[in-house]
Amino acid sequence: MKKEFAVIGLGRFGGSICRELIREGMHVLALDLDEDKVNEYRDIASHAVIADSTDENVLRELGLRNIDHVIVAIGDNIQASMLTTLMLEEMGIKKITVKAQNDYHEKILNKIGADHIVHPERDMGKRIAHNIISNNILDYIELSDDHSVVEVIAGSKLSGQSLIELDIRAQYGCNVVAIKRGKEINVSPMATEEIVEGDILIVIGADKDISRFEKNLITED
Ligand code: ATP
């Protein structure tokens, strides 16, 4: 059975989630206060409705309690975002993802019980900053305040050496969890796997360890 989603707020963020879920074959109820936004999604979403998500009766009438996962993508109106999340929580929705506008908003959403809080502008800003600072870091995902996953390009320093020879886990405290070579991706590479210049390594660990690893083994002198 198709998973049922609802996206509340069809700005750039909510709209792009809606389009992508539909592209992946999901069933999506799209909801916004703004008639023009809803009209834009009439032919895209499975259903598109003009509604105010802060009205509890509306949420009930739309049958939101039967939806598997609701995404609250209301931006500027923090009060509406919080009230909507609280009501969805009280209705017993299994999974709620909410876009946070700032740290204060995020803190309250945590208290209300949102399952998953996203901060797209802040997170994308951090990813781009890491990519700008180091040409060798292709991507960066923050796991916590001090742990991340990064994608780095292997240069000449690593070329021809195996993971066991490099002893990255013992020397640097981080782990190479996958190696991308062209279109191939080797998840959980063997210790004997030899690195080739140009390989993309996916490394997980504490930021300070990843930074040491990157400085010593990736950055060219
Ligand atoms: P983005 O960056 O994703 O474009 P944003 O962060 O600027 O958006 P807004 O444009 O403020 O966010 O809000 C996103 C959408 O949420 C808007 O289309 C707005 O009409 C809708 N919205 C705001 N309040 C409600 C509400 N109570 N019920 C339904 N939709 C709402």
General description of the model:
With 221 residues, this protein is an alpha/beta fold. The chain has 2 domains: 115 residues, NAD(P)-binding Rossmann-like Domain (Rossmann fold, 3-Layer(aba) Sandwich), CATH 3.40.50.720; 96 residues, 2-Layer Sandwich (Alpha-Beta Plaits). It has 9 helices and 11 strands. The protein has a 6-stranded parallel β-sheet with strand order 3-2-1-4-5-6, sandwiched between helices. A 5-stranded antiparallel β-sheet has the order 7-8-11-9-10. Helix 2 links the parallel strand 2 and strand 3. Helix 4 packs parallel to helix 5. Bound molecules: adenosine-5'-triphosphate (ATP). The site of adenosine-5'-triphosphate has 21 residues, from helix 1 and strand 2.
